[in-house]
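Before the break, one more example. Copy the sequence into your notebook; we will annotate it together after we see the structure.
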Amino acid sequence: MEQKSLRVLDTNKTFFSKITSTITKMLIPTKVSINSMMISLKRNNLIKAYSAYNLAVEQDDIEKKDNLLKKYEEIYSLYLEAIDKYIIDSVYKKVKNNTASNFEKEALSKYYFVVSLKEKQYLEYKYRKQEYLLKVDYESVTNLKKESTIEKYNKFYVSKMDSLYKGLLKNYSVQLADTVSSKLETIDNIYNKIFTTLESYISEILPIKLRINNVEDYKNILDDYDKYESMLVGKLDERDKIRQKMVLLGLSRQLFTHSLPLIAAEQCYEKLINDVRNLIVNSKTKPKREKTFELFIELIEDYNVRLLSTKVYWDKPEKREKYKNFWDKYKKIEKIKNNKEQTKQKQILFFKNDLKENDNTIFKKIIKQKLVELGAMKQIKNCCKTISGKYKKQIVEGI
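Here is what the structure looks like once it is written out:
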């Protein structure tokens, strides 16, 4: 479905423009009513077509399935066009005539943002446009208060949204790997889009899936989902935001294994770990730094357990061997029954490993100090005599 070009224009208050404006205001309610009826009609047709197609899939009727899929896709396209027309004929004209509410103005602003993607990121535009239009009508469906219609529509809605979000995440994963795309759009912006997309799905789509499907099907993610929901209460600081993104990545390993492939998820984890390093370096007080270190340990463990331990392909064999050695040490520490000692040994293992993995000189100095505090590194005071006869002290770290 091609997008119609829209632009809000200032009109001169001439005699004819005033008459046009007055007539338009009178016609808007009628157009909205007609559009609502058309959307409702096409929505009902869509639900029937989707149900018929799903039945053919269940029955594995190949010939019938192909014909019904074609019919379903045509009806889906007409349905989206009807919602699009509603936005043009109502919200757009209300904004133009200065009769729109703040909500309607914001809705149109989002609409323009989606449309603006068409020239520079067509794939993203294609998925975002459908997502936007479906969300616009979803509000109308839930307000109908007709349980049978809502139940049938929800099945279609969740299925379609799943495919759209998977498409978006695949697109962003490709952009992360594609250096040409990275020049057009900063890497940080792509990371933000990945996390925003995950957040939107977990907040808006997953609750509907949990409501209409068997909860047992999602028992592997319920703990993480509850953890994520608990983070939505109150004001979040930088640490909380990073922890929230970490939980989102953990959920993505279950929900979007192929759409957000391991290599892209790995880059996202590394981005978060680097953000925490910077937070630690920039912490003004010791209590804040200690709390950030707790997050650092939590994030490193999550990264290793959820992702690196499942990694099959390594671009360099020596990296794989190095990680196997690390993982063996981690599994031994997991067997320690004393929780306090186990935590201490994990910290030592993670800190020592991080010294080899990052190039931040200031952070390395802080990590070495932590290892000294944990008794895993010693500071050796070395005195030497200078040419002038004065003694000079140096501190040398040794593991």
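Confidence is low (pLDDT under 50) at residues 1-13, 15-30. The chain has three domains: 1-145, 154-290, 314-399. Try to locate both features in your own notes.
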